[in-house]
Amino acid sequence: MNEAAAITEPRAGAGPLRKDAASTAPPPVSPEPAGGDELPFPQDDAPVLFLNGIERHYRQGAGVLEILKGAELAVWPGQSVALVAPSGAGKSTLLHIAGLLEYPDAGEVYIERVATSTMSDSQRTRLRRTEIGFVYQFHHLLPEFSAIENVILPQMIRGLSRKEAANRASELLNYLGLKDRLTHRPSQLSGGEQQRVAIARAVANAPRILLADEPTGNLDPRTSERVFGALTQLVRASGLAMICATHNMDIAARMDRRVTLRDGAVVEME
Ligand SMILES: Nc1ncnc2c1ncn2[C@@H]1O[C@H](COP(=O)(O)OP(=O)(O)OP(=O)(O)O)[C@@H](O)[C@H]1O
Ligand SMILES: [Mg+2]
């Protein structure tokens, strides 16, 4: 098995990288909320994630803070999208909604063409566990467990045997250059190593969608370059779709698309 294949297991059908991902602008979307079978995309070329008309506001004292006002974003398999916007613009809010961690006040999140707003909490949790991986700015690894155990655990929660989970965890950590760090606890790893373990953990269950919230935000430029290199390599090798919030324009420049948030809407840059 080659390395890229190892990454896509047990989701061998994740699909090849879209060759035209870099040049693909999202097709125009109808202003009407799309129904389940009437999404504005061809069946054989649908985005894996489609945010349609997302609104989110927060009540703050007597006022209302409108953060997302009809945000729309479609991401296809194998495509990486940089989300670059000023602090407070709503990047984390958008990622939390895309990752089914929060409900929007209006609009719909489609995962593989399926609307998620009417699902039960347990259906949403299952979908999140199987289809979505998260990488946070601060890794959130479990401090009392080793690197490999941190990558084993989410797989066992999903039902894999310890042996299967350990095999995949060590393959992933090898792939990310951490072969000699498997038994280190987070406190015995550098910041960049911790982030790479967090990436391995996020993709351990072979999700279709990876959501990264400033994954290299607290790392020095060289380390962040290395971590990001690992991340893009994984995305391309496995046909994942990634949205990565970042303030780093060098990193954003290397992704397939760049979008920003302007007045609560997602806008393509360039
Ligand atoms: N639970 C909440 N209650 C009230 N306001 C909130 C809440 N969560 C977020 N906000 C506000 O919503 C806005 C968007 O927050 P968000 O965390 O999405 O920004 P961001 O673009 O990720 O910023 P950063 O780059 O600093 O991480 C901010 O102004 C924030 O204060
Ligand atoms: Mg944020």
Question: What does this protein structure show overall?
Answer:
This protein has 270 residues and is α/β, with parallel strands linked by helices. It has helices at 3-8, 91-98, 121-131, 147-157, 162-175, 191-203, 221-238, 249-253; strands spanning 49-60, 63-75, 80-83, 106-111, 114-115, 132-135, 209-213, 241-245, 257-262, 265-268. Strands 6-7-8-3-9-10 form a 6-stranded mixed beta sheet. A 4-stranded antiparallel beta sheet has the order 2-1-4-5, with helices on one face. It starts with a helix and ends with a strand. Adenosine-5'-triphosphate (ATP) is lined by residues 58, 60, 65, 67, 85, 87-93.
Question: Main traits of this protein?
Answer:
alpha/beta; 270 residues; six-stranded mixed beta sheet; binds magnesium ion; binds adenosine-5'-triphosphate
Compile the SSE list and pairings.
Elements: H1 3-8, E1 49-60, E2 63-75, E3 80-83, H2 91-98, E4 106-111, E5 114-115, H3 121-131, E6 132-135, H4 147-157, H5 162-175, H6 191-203, E7 209-213, H7 221-238, E8 241-245, H8 249-253, E9 257-262, E10 265-268
Parallel strand pairs: 3-8, 3-9, 6-7, 7-8
Antiparallel strand pairs: 1-2, 1-4, 4-5, 9-10
Helix pairs in contact: 4-5, 4-6, 6-7
This protein binds adenosine-5'-triphosphate and magnesium ion.
